[in-house]
Design a protein that fits this description.
heterodimer; A: little secondary structure; 1 helix; about 5% strand; extended; B: alpha+beta; Alpha-Beta Plaits; 5-stranded antiparallel beta sheet; 4-stranded antiparallel beta sheet; 9 strands; about 25% strand
Chain lengths: ~70, ~270
């Protein structure tokens, strides 16, 4: 079994935040706690990465992939 | 473990098999499984004083609080991932009680299972490519036939014509750079995609966030069958050999919990 996340020199906080705050299962939409049967207190914080936006400035056309993150 | 009314339940991930408590304790003293319908949520009790909606919001403004929390979040999921397939939850997925978590698991068990079956035996890897644009420019100018041809023409031209050609040269360089940067980025992506079960291109992140000297030109994630991971890493190493001279820098990491490849739609 592989060691966890070791191939790069060090795992930056950015890599982690980009995942654990921006992605991951969301079963009730952000802050929607009123979903009938689901008693969800709080879910989905994205304050930190709110400044992260698409930067297409350095590439004219986006690289083609069927799964593109919406900006 | 029994919770009291000053506590909430924090969820890390879903998995289809559980470690025994002893094994779990080795990962963290406080985590425990919540079982329903053949699925397990990996959970922990957290104090309301820290994790209630109000308090969480406040804590979230404090990077000194956030950093160890998110690192622990990913560490625990990654440890669980060593012995089972996981569906990672967002940081801060918190419920009031166990009963409601079981209800949630039952509600979503079919889609959880489908995702787990799809992710089984696969790993998520991240590849970010950065570019030293100055170095890249220099290399492109040096290797471009079109620009070299224009340089010859300029040398043999009258001052007036040379002036116009120099302007043309400037535009050409911008165009060539853009074209080549796209071409190389696309080539790298295509080569990596060949061994992947699925891929995802994520938004580029600005320097203020990456804290890198170079600009990010590709932010990508790959879902790789475990026995192809070595192959995948070899391809990256090959790409580094080819493109390093052009000022491209590769950052790759994995295996990550499959954050980029889970597909769970919320029920209305």
């Amino acid at each position: 079994m592989n060691d966890v996340i070791t191939k790069s020199k060090d795992v930056t906080l950015l890599e982690i935040l980009d995942r654990v705050l921006n992605k991951g299962v969301v079963i009730s939409g952000d802050l929607v706690i009123s979903v009938a049967d689901i008693d969800l207190v709080y879910l989905g914080l994205k304050l930190l990465l709110s400044s992260v936006e698409t930067m297409e400035k350095y590439r004219g056309a986006p690289i083609y992939s069927p799964y593109q993150e919406s900006s | 473990m029994k919770m009291n009314n000053t506590e909430l339940i924090y969820l890390y991930c879903m998995t289809d098999k559980t470690l025994n408590l002893e094994e779990m304790e080795k990962i963290s003293e406080n985590i425990f499984p919540i079982n329903s319908n053949g699925l397990y949520a990996v959970a922990k009790y957290v104090p309301k004083a820290e994790f209630s909606e109000e308090n969480l919001k406040q804590n979230f403004a404090d990077m000194n609080w956030v950093e160890p929390q998110v690192r622990e979040h990913i560490r625990i999921i990654s440890e669980i991932m060593k012995s089972s397939t996981v569906i990672p939850f967002k940081f801060g997925t918190i419920y009031n009680n166990e009963k409601n978590i079981k209800k949630m698991i039952n509600n979503y068990s079919k889609t959880f299972m489908e995702n787990i079956n799809y992710l089984k035996n696969k790993e998520e890897w991240s590849v970010k490519i950065y570019c030293n644009l100055e170095k890249f420019d220099t290399m492109i100018i040096k290797n471009s036939d079109k620009i070299n041809q224009l340089d010859n023409e300029i040398r043999q031209s009258s001052p007036g014509k040379a002036y116009i050609l120099k302007k043309k040269r400037k535009d050409l360089i911008i165009l060539e750079n853009e074209r080549k940067l796209n071409e190389y980025g696309q080539n790298c992506f295509n080569d990596l995609q060949k061994v992947a079960d699925s891929t995802k291109i994520n938004n580029l992140l600005p320097k203020e966030v990456t804290e890198k000297k170079n600009d990010m030109i590709l932010n990508s994630a790959y879902l790789i069958t475990k026995d192809k991971v070595k192959n995948f890493v070899n391809i990256i190493e090959k790409l580094i050999n080819i493109y390093e001279a052009y000022g491209l820098e590769f950052d790759y990491s994995g295996p990550w919990p499959s954050y980029n490849f889970i597909d769970i739609k919320e029920k209305e």
